[in-house]
Amino acid sequence: MDTVTWTWTGLSGLYSFYLTLCQFANYLEVEFYPVYTPSEQEKEDPVLYANNVRNLMASKLNLPTSDHSYEDIRLMMAGMQQSLPFRAGMVEFVKLKNQL
Description:
With 100 residues, the chain is mostly helical. The protein has 5 helices and no strands.
């Protein structure tokens, strides 16, 4: 059972923490990177700064990025519980909400 990368589904945070403490060994790897100094454009546009930092972190971890929000995933999971294809819930809720 993965008790470290729990999300909003499954175990509660407290129960997951308890199970983590009950394990004989818990391993952790920490990497330190240089401080990211924003450019003048990033100082003017916090969204640009956030996206650039997110992309840098993802590249260091060899992971893709996604514009999906927490609400998108919750909507997708609710759709799957209703036997809908998982893509039926992927409407990028936050972008839609911000446009309204």
